[in-house]
Here is the input.
Amino acid sequence: TVLAARLRAADTMLRQLLGEEAVRSAEMTEAARLALRATEGCTRSGRPLHAANADLPVPPLDHSPHLALWHAATLLREHRGDGHIAALQNAELDALEALVSHTASGHGMNPKWVMSTRGYSEQDWTTAQQRLTGRGLLDNEGELTERGAELRKHLEEETDRLDRRPYELLGAEGVARLTELAGGFTHTAIGAGAFPADLLGKG
Here is the structure.
């Protein structure tokens, strides 16, 4: 029941944000085929969130290419996410420290959105900042130190390394084309108000 509701929500959201023409387009089908091909390079071992989603049926490409793309994007996201969590654990960053340091890099979510969507309080945020300052990763203004910036760079590079197989399988030409197609859909979704204007940034 929950999985069916999840799929209906994705269907409704994508139709509202992208429009019926995009949902039914040849470009959507092409993007879904490329993304599904990339997922064949994913590995399940040690990746619980990816593995759980990989057990779910793929929405029919001929009938619902937008949902097939959404499913493939979910697999690729969680494959990368599971690798990222491994990298964060290796760096001995807990969940909130990872979010705080990411926001301090200028690429993460605005603190108010982190707290409202993850259930953290302002005190939680401040305490995590203090822990990171104690490790020499943040300065007294809450900005990344040189060491902190180097760690964030290393984390992204390590995540890329752990997530390389799907894109090696797809190949440079396929990756470029999928990026072009998905980028176009993302631009349309942003224009339709998919994300709050202040979602990203240090706040």
Notes: DSSP finds ten helices and no strands in the chain. The chain has two domains: 2-88+181-191, 93-158. The CA atoms of residues 100 and 129 lie 7 Å apart. The mean pLDDT is 96.
